[in-house]
Design brief:
Layout (H helix, E strand, L loop, with lengths): L1 H19 L1 H23 L2 E3 L5 E3 L6 H10 L5 E2 L1 H13 L7 E3 L5 E3 L1 H8 L3 H11 L10 H4 L9 H16 L5 H14 L6 E2 L4 H9 L4 H9 L6 H6 L2 H5 L2 H5 L1 H32 L21 H30 L2 H16 L9 H6 L20 E4 L2 E4 H30 L1
Antiparallel strand pairs: 1-2, 3-6, 4-5, 7-8
Helix pairs in contact: 1-15, 2-11, 2-15, 10-15, 10-16, 11-15, 11-16, 15-16, 16-17, 16-19
């Protein structure tokens, strides 16, 4: 019992050191400022149009876009099925049947006049794009919704069949090899998608989709948070106080654990603080409507059978495990390298390299590695037509990208903690 009390006291002491550090205070403030600014900007740049065709933008203090979108969804069908989808496509195509609505550009393309596009398309753009995405090839941009304009409704048997064709296209493109591993992955998704309904409940969900789509902006805050730990072990070596600490009984047995535990508690609290800022900005403007809608409101071919609330919880858990994984790895570097400046440089370098990396194909070894790297791990995959289908196979066990990310950083946490403690013990032996 006495040892437990002493460990708690050490944890509290190390925590106080972290929270009283002037550098850490500066980094915490910087993380909150960056989070506030980035998420405020992302919302302020959103725009839509009312039914009169007037363009409305949020700005830094307004939430008009969300209010208008919420009102626009009330005039749309609550369920997207064969009938409602075909009706929407027909209504869109009818806009082009009147010459009063269209113009012809220099290349001979027929387009809607600006006032018609603003009043008839922009207010329902998210809904129309959801349908348009079913007909376009993955990775292709179609901001003018040309794909649904080209749909031959006389030959279109059913909208749900078009969704299945798109899913088949994605699966055949990703898992085109005839080897056993590729076919096992393909069957994994076929089993997941097999029980899907032919209609989806559709509604206003801007707050949730915006949260998932912009969650990656927290990467900058995570960089600042991780930088607070660069001197946890290294600073004592630089100041020469480690020789004194190693001579104490607690220094040999408890201090490394106390530093690790206090560091995890510290970064977790700062992360939660940033997360609360994000949620206040995002849901304060948009509201919580749509939490129970299926994730297919973002992409109809998404293979994940969950609602927005579940997807958001998983996303937050992924971000949290990622933060702890990087934090414990930095603690290991702090003990191993024993120089705060070197560790901080490595931290910045890791994030910068990850930030500017990209993928050139939907599948392959590099894509699988990239999606689990720092920065890219925060990229939203629930609505991705191709990346959302990424799978990892180990000895016949198939794991999707969502759970693989969590597993990778959970393993990193365990390895980093073990290596930090072992390195710290060797440090004691040397001294």
């Amino acid at each position: 019992m006495k040892g437990e009390i002493e460990l708690r006291e050490l944890i509290f002491y190390e925590f106080k050191k972290l929270i009283k550090s002037k550098l850490n205070i500066f980094l915490i403030i910087l993380s909150i400022i960056s989070t506030t600014f980035l998420f405020k900007v992302s919302i302020s740049q959103m725009s839509t149009a009312d039914k009169n065709g007037d363009i409305i933008r949020n700005g830094f203090t307004s939430n008009q876009v969300f209010l208008i979108e919420k009102n626009n969804y009330k005039s749309l069908p609550s369920y997207l099925n064969d009938k409602s989808a075909i009706d929407i496509i027909q209504s869109y195509q009818d806009l082009f049947s009147s010459k009063e609505n269209t113009i012809t550009d220099d290349e001979g393309n027929i387009k809607l006049k600006e006032n018609i596009y603003n009043s008839k398309v922009i207010p329902f753009f998210h809904y129309l794009r959801l349908i348009d995405d079913v007909y376009k090839k993955p990775g292709k941009e179609d901001i003018y919704l040309n794909e649904i304009k080209k749909v031959d409704l006389e030959k279109e048997k059913s909208f749900s069949e078009s969704i299945n064709k798109k899913i088949d296209y994605v699966l055949n493109d990703l898992f085109k090899d005839s080897n056993r591993s590729s076919q096992t992955k393909k069957q994994y998704w076929l089993n997941k998608i097999g029980n899907r309904t032919n209609e989806y409940k559709i509604g206003y969900h801007s707050g949730w989709s915006n949260f998932l789509g912009t969650f990656e902006l927290l990467n900058l805050a995570i960089i600042f948070i991780c930088m607070t730990l660069t001197g946890v072990f290294a600073r004592e070596s630089q100041l020469g106080t480690d020789n004194i600490i190693m001579t104490s009984k607690l220094g040999k047995k408890k201090l490394s654990k106390a530093k690790i535990i206090s560091s995890i508690i510290f970064v977790s609290l700062v992360f939660v603080l940033n997360l609360l800022v994000v949620m206040c900005i995002n849901f304060g403007a948009s509201g919580f409507d749509g939490w129970n809608l299926p994730i297919q409101n973002m992409n109809l071919i998404s293979p994940y059978n969950m609602n927005f609330l579940t997807a958001t919880i998983i996303t937050i858990i992924t971000g949290f495990v990622y933060l702890i994984g990087m934090s414990t790895f930095i603690l290991f570097l702090s003990e191993k390298l024993k120089k705060t400046s070197v560790v901080m440089s490595i931290v910045i370098l890791i994030f910068l390299i990850s930030m500017f990396m990209s993928i050139s194909s939907w599948d392959g070894l590099w894509t699988h590695i990239y999606l689990c790297m720092p920065y890219s791990i925060m990229l939203e995959t629930f609505s991705e037509s191709m990346l959302g289908y990424t799978l990892y196979s180990f000895f016949g066990v198939v794991i999707n990208i969502v759970w693989m990310r969590i597993i990778v950083y959970a393993v990193l946490i365990l390895l980093s903690i073990v290596m930090t403690i072992r390195t710290y013990k060797k440090h004691q032996c040397i001294n």
